[in-house]
Amino acid sequence: MGIFGRGAASGLYVSEFEQFLNRLKTDHPEMDRNQMIGRALLWDKLPRLPDSGDVAGKEGALRQPSYVYYSDND
Asked: Is 2 left (phi over 0), alpha (psi -120 to 50) or beta?
């Protein structure tokens, strides 16, 4: 048994929530795969750089005035 052994086999306390998650993962083994697919869809992306030839990287760029402390409202 390792230092961080978990579960009923290690003899340590297992909370009701952890029991629920273990039972849920046993009943629905495809859930882990679906979570990884969802994460890849939303989060695992390379950042878009403004100087790349990508149109989506440039759509949020704003032109900054030459001296930001002057305003055109004077």
From this structure: beta
